[in-house]
């Protein structure tokens, strides 16, 4: 029987995988604040050189990223992409569709599901309420820069600030060309509003007179997986009407998160 491959430092490949996993679990637990190198090697019990070497390899593969200013480590963009692939066993659209229909029935307005695809937000689902004037601001399958639209900005609020800035810089020229009234300062203000209040109100750039309210959907591990938004005439998104729709969205996003957690726990037992 062939013996297991041994790395340059005398450790087996299996041991190295365990070490990588241990570091990733530590970073995941503190992902929003990030972790310093010293925190990681002390918490993991590894030596400083070994921890640094593993982290640099993970950074190269985009599994981990290091903030240029704080030098702290966070989960990288590849982890998000892998998470989307892992979630394919329970399609987010299938999970969310009954909740979209419920929100549409309770509010009377049009409801949208937004998910991330690279640097874009994609309309992955839509449900129509009974109110006669419809706010069809998005067709299912439409891509827009992830900085544009209530659902996309709600999604961004769950990401690290440097990742949000990276997405903006990638999309900057396209936004300037296609959305000339876009204001990056307003984007950041809306992101902060979501983080403090749980939702945002957005004026729909493409359709005058239409407003949207949106909330992020968080997965079982705390990362954003999508966003729900309701679009309606401005008069239907103010005062008591707004408070009622925020309550409906809050209940729906919480229920979706609970179902995703249940699906994730069931999958882990298989």
TrEMBL record:
It holds the Pfam family HTH_IclR. Residues 14-77 form the HTH iclR-type domain. It comes from the Bacteria. Keywords: DNA-binding, Transcription, Transcription regulation. One of its GO terms (biological process) is negative regulation of DNA-templated transcription. GO terms for molecular function: DNA binding; DNA-binding transcription factor activity. This is IclR family transcriptional regulator. It comes from Bordetella flabilis. The lineage of its organism: Bacteria, Pseudomonadati, Pseudomonadota, Betaproteobacteria, Burkholderiales.
């Amino acid at each position: 029987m062939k013996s297991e491959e041994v790395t340059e430092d005398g450790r087996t490949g299996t041991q190295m995988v365990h070490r990588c996993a241990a570091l990733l679990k530590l970073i995941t637990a503190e992902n929003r604040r990030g972790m310093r190198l010293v925190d990681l090697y002390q918490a993991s019990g590894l030596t400083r050189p070994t921890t640094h070497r593993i982290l640099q390899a993970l950074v190269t593969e985009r599994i981990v990223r290091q903030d240029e200013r704080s030098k702290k480590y966070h989960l990288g963009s590849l982890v998000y992409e892998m998470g989307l692939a892992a979630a394919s066993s329970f399609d987010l659209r299938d999970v969310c569709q009954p909740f979209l229909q419920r929100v549409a029935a309770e509010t009377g307005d049009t409801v949208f599901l937004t998910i991330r695809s690279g640097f874009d937000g994609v309309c992955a689902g839509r449900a129509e309420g009974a109110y006669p004037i419809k706010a069809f601001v998005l067709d299912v399958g439409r891509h827009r820069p992830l900085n544009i639209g209530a659902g996309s900005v709600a999604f961004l609020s769950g990401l690290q600030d440097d990742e949000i800035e990276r997405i903006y810089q990638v999309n900057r020229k396209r936004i300037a060309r296609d959305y000339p009234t876009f204001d990056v300062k307003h984007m950041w203000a809306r992101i902060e509003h979501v983080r403090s209040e749980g939702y945002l109100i957005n004026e729909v750039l493409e359709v005058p007179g239409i407003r949207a309210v949106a909330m992020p959907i968080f997965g079982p591990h705390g990362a954003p997986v999508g966003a729900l938004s309701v679009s309606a005439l401005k008069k239907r998104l103010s005062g008591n009407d707004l408070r009622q729709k925020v309550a409906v969205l809050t209940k729906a996003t919480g229920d979706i998160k609970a179902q995703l957690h249940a699906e994730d726990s069931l999958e882990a037992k298989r």
